[in-house]
Amino acid sequence: MGRVAPCLPAIAVVSCNKHIYLPSFAMSITAFFRTLASRSHWAIHSVWLVVLAGILCANVVDGYFQLQENELRLLLSESSIAVNIVKMEVGGITHLLDTVENAVMAQRDEGQLADQLQGLVRDNPLVAAIAVELNGAPRASTGAISSASTALFSRSTAKDGLPSVSVSIALKPEFWGYKLAYAFNRADAKVAVYTASGRPLLPFANLGNAENALLAESIANMAPDAAALHTQSLRADGARSMLTLQQAAAPFLAGGPLVVGTIISSENSYAHWHSDLLIQVLIWLAAAVLSTLLLMIEARRRRRSELSTEKLQSAMRSRDKFISILMDHAPIMVSYWDAERRCHYANRMYRAWFGKGEEEIIGIDLQSLLGEELLAKCAPLIDATLRGEPQNFEQERARADGSTGYVLSRYIPDMDGREVRGFFVIASDITELKQTQQSLEKRIEDLYSLATTDALTGLNNRRNLLEKIQFEIERAKRYGLNMVFFMLDIDHFKKINDTFGHDTGDAVLKALGALLHDTMRTSDHVGRLGGEEFGILLASVVPEQAEAIAERLRRRVEEMVVWHNEKDIRFTVSIGLADLQADMENPLEDMVKRADLALYRAKNSGRNRVCLADNLLPPAVDNSEGQGFGA
């Protein structure tokens, strides 16, 4: 144990979590405040507070002007709404004047004219009365035109050759209040209607004498212009408010045009501004107090830290030596073992892998930690390390939770001259890398299978089958071997598809593929050439043997029953045989072509039979009929 004593302080510092490094950012902040704590930087601190105060004041002033601008914009918007409503209603009254004049000109009977006027009053319940004069003499009227009426609209017209017609329409006092009741979006907005002469048609409520006098003066001083607009501040209901006056043309109103007044309260908006002002002041005070306190605290801390800086630097140098060794080897799981194979340090990830606490693992021996089986695997590596030979290896190990993982380990001897005092263990968990590698290998296998296998039958696809046949041809040419190629086709396969459906046709193809796979030898090559056509290569057989094999295969297919969709499906096959002619320019193409011709001969001869290529037939056989095509 005494031999490893020199490295124990560094190990103890790392394993103890009471001492940590400050991150570089935190150290930079600390250095900044230390600099600021000097006497010369108190002036900078004061300037910063002044600048902050200026920014906050500018923000408050800008907020005040923004508030006034928003209130004025809102006031003008609400006023425009009210003026547009008034103009619309004046237009309605003008239309009513036109209606009455037309009725007078069209109706000669006074009784009927009076009835029409009464109907118009009923249709317009806010109209108090309508009176008509013809050439200055009363013609008809309904209702009573009194001084209580809020507005009187009168118009006289005289056309060439027609009598003079005068029409007067009196509105009820509640007319303007009803029309403007829902004009505004804001609940604190108020509206009033006056004539240009100052007579109130819908006066403001709860205005004092001074405010009413100011309002009357403002109306009297307005320019006689439809675009005239007047705004000012005043107090309404004891609250700070803004007033706007805007004219609306009313050509047939006695005392016209109309003046529409709008008042909105600014009290709530200014209350928000005052709150913002208070918050800005509090922010400045908090920043001033907090920054001053931080400077004072940092000044005291600096005085204390300067006394212990030298001692801290010495401890950090001792600790850096051990940490630099670990970081140089990019550790993930780290431990240190002495020459007696007892643990003196294990980091958190190393302990987690074995499910041990810090107190449990310090002082433990290798056999207790690894167990006899794993120790037997690692013992030769450990012995070599203790001889001064670093070891790198990959190993499958069980975790404490029972799962299995892969680690890439490195054993590094701790050398003191020629003496090995112990060794470091640096291990990386490469389980995910291994799983990725296995997944990629499986993917490659799957891709190879997709590229070489027919998806429906599981047999070789056409390309792979022909490549294998070409390889066998080269081998046969080299060693003088025989081989025979079968081309097999299902008889009346289209009829199966048309009668039972394509899913039944697929089932037939699968069943035939399985039969071919199970029947042929492992040295034979079986594949699907396309559609219902299959190819089989028999190596090291002569044509006579191949013909017997083909005949047995044909009978097995004839006896086979495919059960699909609760139906028994039976079918037959036709087979064409051709042997290898190695001296041909393209032996593969020649063999496949002759097998194909033999297959079509089998089709044309009635199907469900085996036919040999021309060169394999006895000379006495006439093949002139075998050049047609069948299905």
From TrEMBL:
Residues 391-442 form the PAC domain. Keywords: Membrane, Transmembrane, Transmembrane helix. SMART domains: GGDEF, PAS. The keyword Membrane applies. Pfam families: GGDEF, PAS_4. The chain crosses the membrane at residues 42-65, 248-265, 277-297. One of its GO terms (molecular function) is diguanylate cyclase activity. Residues 481-615 form the GGDEF domain. NCBIfam families: GGDEF (TIGR00254), sensory_box (TIGR00229). PANTHER family: DIGUANYLATE CYCLASE DGCM-RELATED, REGULATORY COMPONENTS OF SENSORY TRANSDUCTION SYSTEM. This is GGDEF domain-containing protein. It comes from bioreactor metagenome.
